[in-house]
Write a structure and sequence with these properties.
The structure is a homodimer.
Chain A lengths: L26 E4 L7 E2 L5 E2 L3 E7 L9 E5 L26 E2 L4 E2 L4 E5 L14 E2 L4 E2 L9 H14 L5 E7 L1 H12 L4 E7 L7 H15 L16 H15 L2 H7 L16 H16 L2 H13 L2 H4 L4 H4 L6 E7 L7 H13 L4 E6 L7 H4 L2 H11 L12 H13 L6 E5 L5 H9 L4 E6 L2 H9 L3 E4 L16 E5 L8 H11 L2 E7 L5 H9 L23 H10 L3 E8 L3 H8 L3 H4 L2 E7 L11
Parallel strand pairs in A: 5-8, 5-11, 6-7, 11-12, 12-13, 13-14, 15-16, 15-18, 16-17, 18-19
Antiparallel strand pairs in A: 1-4, 2-3, 4-8, 9-10, 19-21, 20-21
């Protein structure tokens, strides 16, 4: 059992390799346990642990392309592919884990195991207790996410994978991925956490409570010892119907069912389509899932609380982490909230870790990570890349001049740099070539641009800098850059303060509205000026807060911001002459200013 | 029974009349029904209908100050005040309905009745069926919101109130208020609908479905004929626990319970505080409510669908409405969504009705209308006012000159006018004095300003004009005004298009950025100009899209907008001279332009 099973490369037709669906099957491993059995976090002991798992893809000769996928609450080991007798993919994440997919089976060797406490082949309450020869039932001990993770860790070691490229999980799987990063820091190079959080919210907990109450008060539940008799199907169905409401957004429910009524409702039967759907989900679930497993795994999820575990601080919880982390929030998810993912990213940053964070549109809600994998695939694929992919095309020479000037202003001792409104990451690429020791993080609000930055090997956070860098803790970076974006901010003064909150030094470049061409255009043309650097019309311009060099320097003075260096750039001949004559406010078309916090060293927000 | 009961004015101590809590008691009326009994919308018949109701406040001699309050799903007639033996108010809306409250008992005479199908004194499934002498149980017929409303209507007539000043309802009570407006158009002068909608959303329906399933599959339910035996307490508790989750926002749950655990949880007992809270709510409810009543009233609510009833059009549904309407959405409400209130307001506007619409912050969620009544009180009080309250203080003479010019530009035949970014309603007040035949509606994004506009007797909609006037149907008004606010819009071009979508003619006034002082300040001062009309600094100015007169006229030309009249205003002597010399672009500090849709008459969005 110690050796990994050799991965069988799939034969695929030559015309379209990515359309091939790999054939997968469930295997079973009995864990090699120390004498006395597997000790659980809450004190229980399991004398025997069997684990059901599946693999897909091809293991590299160096065994360095393994990705462990952790499944969600009621999932199983069948993450991708089809059975031999099936013609279509039946794995629960087949859209993501496939040749050419977000987790690309042409690149990675994927492993997925059913969790401890489950009822899909891994030891759980419906398994036979070797001590009695009867199903565990009510005597199955309480389990935690740490136990669930440790069982997978033991399995992986037994299969010969003491180290993997990445651990990926969504929802409850994301909690497992987080727990892996904290409990087994050397295990994975990368950890991706999707639609998850450091714990359940109060509201999510409340839904679990009602589901659990419904099961426990079902007369057939009999305290959990129902094996051999009727099962608590009614209660389990209610719990599942309820859970299914939380997996979809209200918008998706509206789209899918609206208020449509069934054509010919039977007496006592469902009237509305949504009613029929929920009843169907409930009925399907009681056929495949065990009520005790549901209670035990929900119990582990309800109990999971990274923050509490580390004395109330996520940064402390993340201190041991070594992996590069990706945190993905889904916008329409109301079970695991975007603010929870933001808290994860903030905690990782505060602990000084490499973090990328995305917030993707997901109108369907929580389930989107399973069913709408388009954008998520491109994010995951970029994150999992083992080598950065940086475009080598030449940059606009005008830009190169700006970038060179900007790069020269970077403090010599800086090790981390944040580029706000980073675009495609061109500036970070430029800096990385000249200063490879610098660890770059970009912020942008466009998903494709952020994905390109991520592919360049940088960390990236999808965020609107204008809404504040709330996810970024104080002093998280050595230097912050805001290049040619000051004027698009709704509150440029607050953005400046934010820059100098997250880093002691900032470099800001912006177009100079005082340049002679602009008042001249107003005075003699009678219209708002349109220039190369300000090419928009008055009504659709993103440049809503233009200023002159003097305006900017005034603001710095008023806010106690120290100006370390001011560089005037200009291209027009007349401007150059004006610059040389000392009329820099009239001459320069753009300006780069290096600023730092005032002498008091205090945060500029608290003068 | 035909005569109304004389309202007993409460004795209040002289020092603080509004602190007195009125004493209220439940009265009972047996409805005078036609022979054959009360015919229900779905075909059933009730031979006898008793109604429990309460009254509070003093009836005016003219009997013109009656406000009917409709209660929510599991409410009752005890809307306000205290019982003789109580020292504190115990009514479910005591914070709102009290002397000096949003529904001011010093001004209005309030009536509230328990709904048909209920279990708080009005005929319902637990009442005795006179035909058998046994409780109705499963034989109690299906009821609808129309039946519930008709019973209240009959009660009011019987009490001598064939016409009332207003009907007010929140949540399910809001559905009743809407139904009153549509079914009995002459009944009320005003109708206020709070945190409600034209129907339940798919998601809200789904929650009801799960609750109903839990009751119906409780073994003690026995098809509804459980009277005399054990009650289906388990199922009813689950339904209530679930409903309680939907009444609170996630934020409020977080604040109230977070993930706190109970100090000494008992085996099998609740572990988390939220768990204990929900169990308590469930247990409390089964003591006071009947499962069959819950199913019947939920059934009426699930079935209610104003849109469907009128062939899919809310505008058609609202055609009969005569009352002035107020629609209030709560921002944190996820059971009845703000977009549903917006749909109500849009439907009423499309039907040509007088509508005011608010969207109030309510971080607690749906229950906010019951517990956080501050802002809601001020809105309701302003809406219920029987005479407009317009300030008579003198307006800035500068402003008077603008308003006069603007008023002269209003089309002679206009009957309705929309003032976008209306502020306190000063311009609408001004126009109302000179053109009393004009029906004014304001839009503003500040609640206090919108409330002042409402108190002035105008309709008002709380909305961000910049986000589009999506709630306003095409051609809802004869003329639209945008006074001194073009430059604060994020997309002024789109706002112009919106103005000419909701009205054929618009009048727009704005500061002229081409005025000589501005380029002069840039050129000679080197800083962004600060003037009387543009008093802000570059970084915090709301004026983010400034333009010159020429710029504005260019845009109109590009978009096929016809400019009917352009008026240049200036105050400075030099400007006046420049204006007279024809250099109006340099001379005028502000401009008023009257525009209308292009010759094609088409919506400018579809040229």
């Amino acid at each position: 059992m110690k050796r990994a099973l050799p991965a069988t490369p799939e034969r695929r037709p030559a015309f379209d390799p990515s359309s091939a669906i790999p054939v997968t099957e469930t295997r079973f491993a009995r864990l090699e346990l120390p004498p006395g059995g597997f000790r659980l976090e809450k004190g229980g002991v399991l004398p025997r642990v069997d684990v059901a798992y599946e693999t897909a893809g091809t293991l590299s000769p160096e065994r360095d392309n393994v990705v462990l996928v952790c499944h969600a609450l009621t999932g199983d080991a069948h993450v991708c592919g089809r059975r031999r007798w099936e013609s279509a993919a039946s794995g629960w994440w087949s859209d993501m884990v496939k040749p050419g997919g977000g987790i690309d089976l042409d690149r990675y060797f994927v492993v997925c195991a059913n969790v401890l406490g489950g009822c899909m082949g891994t030891t759980g309450p419906s398994s036979v207790d070797p001590g009695t020869g009867e199903p565990w039932g009510s005597r199955f001990p309480e389990i935690t996410v740490a136990d669930i993770v440790d069982v997978q860790f033991l399995l992986m070691r037994q299969l010969g994978f003491g180290h993997v490229h990445a651990v990926v999980g969504g929802s409850f799987g994301g909690m497992q991925a987080l727990c892996f990063a904290v409990r087994h820091p050397g295990f994975a190079d990368k950890v991706a956490v999707i639609a998850s959080g450091p714990s359940l919210t109060s509201q999510a907990l409340a839904f679990d409570v009602v589901g659990r109450n419904a099961i426990e008060q079902d007369p057939d539940f009999r305290g959990g010892d129902y094996y051999g008799g009727p099962r608590p199907a009614g209660g389990l169905a209610i719990a599942r119907e309820l859970a299914h409401i939380t997996y979809l957004s209200g918008e998706m429910m509206k789209k899918k069912f609206g208020r449509r009524r069934r054509d010919a409702p039977q007496a006592g039967g469902p009237i509305f389509e949504v009613e029929s759907y929920l009843r169907h989900q409930g009925a399907k679930f009681i056929g495949r899932f065990d009520a005790n497993s549901y209670l035990r795994i929900c119990g582990a999820m309800d109990d999971f609380d990274l923050e509490k575990q580390a004395g109330g601080s996520l940064a402390a919880a993340f201190a041991p982490v070594k992996a590069r982390a990706l945190v993905v929030a889904l916008e329409g998810d109301w079970l695991f909230l975007p603010r929870q993912s933001e808290a994860l990213a903030g905690g990782l940053l505060a602990a000084g870790k490499d973090v990328s964070a995305f917030r993707l549109d997901a109108p369907s809600g929580h389930d989107s990570f399973l069913i709408h994998t388009g954008e998520l695939s491109s994010v995951l694929a970029a994150f999992l890349l083992r080598e950065p992919s940086r475009p080598t095309a030449a940059i606009d020479p005008d830009l190169v001049r700006d970038y060179e000037a900007l790069e020269r202003m970077l403090p010599q001792r800086a090790r981390t740099v944040l580029d706000v409104a980073c675009g495609d990451g061109t500036l970070l690429d430029f800096v990385a070539r000249r200063r490879p020791e610098l660890d770059g993080t970009g912020i942008d609000l466009s998903v494709p641009r952020a994905v390109r930055t991520l592919r360049g090997g940088h960390n990236v956070m999808l965020a609107d800098a204008d809404a504040g860098l709330s996810a970024v803790p104080d002093d998280a970076f050595d230097c912050a850059i805001l290049s040619e974006s000051l004027q698009v901010m709704r509150r440029p003064d607050r953005v400046l303060e934010e820059l100098l909150r997250v880093a002691p030094v900032a470099i800001v470049s912006f177009p100079n509205f005082g340049m002679w061409k602009i008042p001249a255009a107003l005075l003699f043309g009678g219209r708002m000026p349109v220039t190369k650097r300000l090419p928009y019309r008055w009504y659709d311009t993103p440049n809503i807060h233009l200023c002159t060099v003097k305006d900017f320097l005034d603001l710095c003075r008023d806010r106690g911001i120290v100006v370390e260096e001011t560089l005037h750039l200009s291209t027009l001949a007349l401007s150059k002459i004006l610059n040389r004559l000392g009329a820099k406010n009239l001459g320069s078309s753009r300006v780069i200013v290096k600023i730092r916090r005032g002498a008091s060293g205090a945060n500029p927000r608290q003068p």
